[in-house]
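Re: weekly structure request thread

Next one in the queue (490 aa):
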Amino acid sequence: MSDYDLLIKNVKVIGANAEPFHGDIAIKDQVIVSLGRNLVAESAQTVVDGKGKLAFPGAIDAHQHWGIYNELSEDTASESRASAQGGVTTGITYMRTGQYYLNQAGPYREFMPKVLNATEGRAHIDYTFHIAPMSKEHIAELPVLANDFGVTSFKIFMFYGGFGLHGASASQRDFLMLPEGENYDIAHFEAVMRGVQELREELPEYADEITLGLHCETAEIMRAYTQMVQDEGTLRGLEAYSAARPPHSEGLAITIASYLAHETKLPTINLLHLSSAKALEAAVLMAHTFPHVNFRREVTLGHLLASYNTAANIGGKVNPPLRSEADIESLWQHLAEGTIDWVVSDHACCSEEEKFGDGESRNDVFAAKSGFGGAEYLYPGLVGAGLKRGVSERRIAQLAAWNPAQRFGLTTKGDIAVGYDADIALVDPAQSTVIEPEDSVSSQEYTPFEGFTLEAAVTDTFLRGQHILKNGDVVGQPTGRYVARGPNAS
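Done, posted below.
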């Protein structure tokens, strides 16, 4: 019998909690069992020569949206394959009731089995979910979500206070499918926070991983500025969209959310996809103002790489919007200083027809759908741009894998260390790639990154020791598993 199922030799091992070293990684029964130099190849059933590449822990992409525009089971298959291209081995996808996703309302005890059934056996990576409590009934169901479905992370979309997914909503109740007499507003956000804190008190052993993430934009500011931008008519495209959802809208929402966390005594707050210097200014200020709140700050690869000037097309419409070059520099500065905790893709696959529509509306940024894919570029973009800017390899491993694993209760993932799942991405920092949409296995036919050069490439990805990306090609059948957390963790 072989000592190892798989031996990855001749790599630079980039652990999240140890100094990098040149050596080998040995895997048995889907976990890492040994790290070292010159491990004996004859003891392995399969040997892979890493050819000196960087071996990073498989990325944990903590912000994806499977099923937002496409049928959930189809999206699970295609977008998990795209994730493997980017060195992602675990995706955490957002799910809620209302329009989009499953397009239905009702209790999560009935909704979640449908979600799990649609995704089972379809994913090429491991996956789990963040859930948004949209109604009073959902707040009451938080213990059910944690105990029965293994969900310990939740979300609030602050801008839904008067906006749909893409612009002003004619009827919030119709869009969110809310019960009569209920509103999705600041009072509801407070009630969600109190509910999440009660869940933390009910499950003290898991309190640190029971967290609430917030999409921080202010609906009233957005409504006023959208009208101003459209009335003035001097800005076009993505710059117009950024002006219509201005950075101080983020800052104000962050301030409101932070005070509500203080008021409700909820200390585990995640500020999601911060896009601007003003958003980071507010986030850092709130951390100093409320030191008892354990904030985590997230940015997306898209906001790190593309501005409203450099994105290839209005396919770069996303919420919050792509910002200026100065904002990009600010995000990178905060990342280097340690005030950013993880980097995500915010992957939301949308077909070209659905994204742009047709006829006169095709070039109207306000009519286009919001969101785009990008998980396939996560490690290539972060490693290529990060190393060039002086971000250390170990810091990249923490941003892509370790920090989200720790925050979201993925206790066997996020590092290359003995006893951890053998989730590994081999990255070649000497191989540059010019992004072309057809090179992605996502079902999305366009990308706002078209023509961008990434100064690194993922050549191989392993999920629990299984080769799921080999020499740049997705291989094998889907073997990804749903990862329950909290009391339901296996």
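The longest strand covers residues 4-13. The chain has one domain: 59-413+430-454.
Next request, please.
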